[in-house]
Amino acid sequence: MTPPASLPSRQRGPGRPREFDTDLALDRAIAVFSERGYHGTAISDLTQALGLTAGSLYKAFTDKRGLFLATFDRYVALRAEGLRAALDAASTGRAKIRAVLDFYADSSHGPDGRRGCLVVASAVDLATADAAVAARVAGALDVNEGRLAALVALGQADGTVAPHLDAAVTARLLLCVLQGMRLIGKTGRHATEMAAVADGALKLLD
Amino acid sequence: MTPPASLPSRQRGPGRPREFDTDLALDRAIAVFSERGYHGTAISDLTQALGLTAGSLYKAFTDKRGLFLATFDRYVALRAEGLRAALDAASTGRAKIRAVLDFYADSSHGPDGRRGCLVVASAVDLATADAAVAARVAGALDVNEGRLAALVALGQADGTVAPHLDAAVTARLLLCVLQGMRLIGKTGRHATEMAAVADGALKLLD
DNA sequence: TTGATTGGGAAACGATCATTTCCTATAAGG
DNA sequence: CCTTATAGGAAATGATCGTTTCCCAATCAA
């Protein structure tokens, strides 16, 4: 229907070109999988939300699990991109950690908060049944934890975080706060509630 | 087969008595629903784990959702009971909060941690689709948050928690830490890791 | 233009799902 | 003893699930 855009996954080989934007489809799949979970999402839910027929969907992503994995990867990439932007706007280690907390507070209130985090949803829905998903969830959390540890160390180097703290433990503790915000955000919280949590968590750096 | 025990739900009316212990069946259902999620659990999974046929299961719990709700309530009651015991062993407000943190650290490592929390699983799996489940999840979290707020206030009264802290915000922050521990515990953590998180969280009371 | 290759899409497929039936067994009340 | 009421359990039921098939359209290489 619409003229084809650039295809990142296949650089114009033979055959009919894809008519839909893969990333846009994955963006919509993020919303569906996030609020319904993997097992709670039917192919019909996806075809309706993505505006695709089952045939096209299977041609592009092999099967439901393949679509989920691609959706998961896109979600992690998008979140990392947004977080990087928030981090670049802060200078000191403490300010960067505050930026992370604020980023999660922003994501954990209102309708977006209710929709929830796809990593959290994957951890509880698939991590015990699917080894590949479990590895990606653990990897995403490890990246997050490692990033926090680096920021704590940065803050200790620039004097904005207490030097006696164990960076690894503090990072793990902050990770719990972040994931906990995402979890309780599913019950519908106000922006001010979550902002206060983010503020209070800074005490962990003293 | 076995002689009937005491039936709490029905005090010996007419008809054939139930042959299985309802609470024992629910205890097994907790494990199944916790690690597979609601949508990921099939009736056949439950009949196998509980040692019941589908007919008996439907006679006792109406349908899958009814069994889930009963399982959820039993889980919350069991957790509250365990937590109460841990709380009674501590005297000061700070000691009681430490007991809560240790209780969650104990639940969030190893195989039990991997199995996960049924409240967390319900929050991400059903809270957006089922209003009754959403209300129970929100209620369970509210009870937890209120209990933490009372303990913070208790600690401020007995001088073991910093008096200038906002009890409500600190309680919400602690709730995030607890739920976050449950979440990252799904990726398989060691007891020492989670114990360190519990220790570090006490800094929030200074 | 022709052949090879891929995507779009409706319909069909077998499998599995939650649930119900139907029958037998076991109790209480009269 | 007879009626009523509930539980146990195997089998059947209809719906829905994920997936495939089949046919046509669109593009590239020659």
TrEMBL record, chains A, B:
InterPro entries, A to Z: Homeodomain-like_sf, HTH_TetR, Tet_transcr_reg_TetR-rel_C_sf, TetR_C
DNA-binding region: 42-61
GO molecular function: DNA binding
Keywords: DNA-binding, Transcription, Transcription regulation
Keyword set includes DNA-binding: yes
Gene3D superfamilies per UniProt: Homeodomain-like (1.10.10.60), Tetracycline Repressor, domain 2 (1.10.357.10)
HTH tetR-type domain: residues covered: 19-79
The protein, known as: AcrR family transcriptional regulator
Superkingdom, taxonomy of origin: Bacteria
